[in-house]
Amino acid sequence: MTRNARKGWIAAALAIVMIASLLASCGKSGDGKTKVTIGEVTRSLFYAPEYVAVAKGYFEAEGLDVELTTTPGGDKTMTALLSNTIDVALVGSETSIYVAQQGADDPVINFAQLTQTDGTFLVARKPVDAFDWSSLKGVDFLGQRKGGMPQMAGEFTLKKHGIDPKKDLNLIQNIDFANIPAAFLSGTGAYVQLFEPQASIIEKEGKGHVVASFGVESGHLPYTVFMAKQSFISKHKDTVQSFTNAIHQAQRWVAEHSAEEIADVVLPYFQNTDRAIAVSAIDRYKKQGSYASDPIVDEAEWNNLLDVMTTAGELKERVPYEKLVDTTYAQAAIEASK
Q1: What is the chain's percent helix, strand, coil content, to nearest 5?
Q2: CATH number for domain 120-218, candidates 3.40.190.10, 3.40.109.10, 3.30.499.10, 1.20.120.530
Q3: What is the tens place of the pLDDT at every residue in 186-197?
Q4: Is the pTM value of this prediction over 0.90?
Q5: Residue 85 and residue 78: Cα distance in Å, rounded?
């Protein structure tokens, strides 16, 4: 996403806020539970603990009636949050930084982390016995959307291995997120950067081979985080605490159970996904530590995110950790679980 495009959606979102109700949508359901609407940036096995929190009744036990909505794309998710269409967003922390850079009066606060690494994998069209990053030089590389965390983590990794993504390879970025797997299958690119379960699906069909993980290479990041506007958090502290408690319960359950057990719990949210593929995807994410073990966004992760954004040329100035991160609720959730 270019800076002009990003300014466009942020300006539009802020305009909507001016005419939207100043009251957050959090209210009571018929059974007395507090209603909370989550807007997730996509429906993904990468977010398994979120679905575990719903399916295992952790939100309900905390007195919450949670509604999941999917708003594809970080721009759409953030617009929904800023306009009070949703209460809580599950999206990359970079979006809160983009909003802050535009001088928002009601900043978006990161309060509970769900994933702590990039979730994409490098898939080669042909088998590679001993992959070396230098072999990417000169190839057609099908990447992710400019300005989004997958692409920034991808470019960060390439540069880490001495590859200039603008000069050393043919970086293809003009394909919509949802169409990237199909583009690769149709013959575009010698390598592609893919999320699960697409990587496992393509591998199972024998049409590609996972050769590396961008999550492993780019390190710990506040990659996908639950966030809300500061005004919402100030008005609904108990709700935010209950929400965070439920997420931490789910994180602990995921850490203690196998990929097979997790898949069986979350598959109702992925009705068209083969169980074996779901197990493969979840197993990959568990093994590389993608699922955060607790909801805390720590300062080292935040600084790594700023480094990734700086390397990608997407950061005007470094945003202080304490400005957009509140660990109060995560810390209390951890204490409550002991």
Answers
A1: 50, 15, 35
A2: 3.40.190.10
A3: 999 999 999 999
A4: no
A5: 10
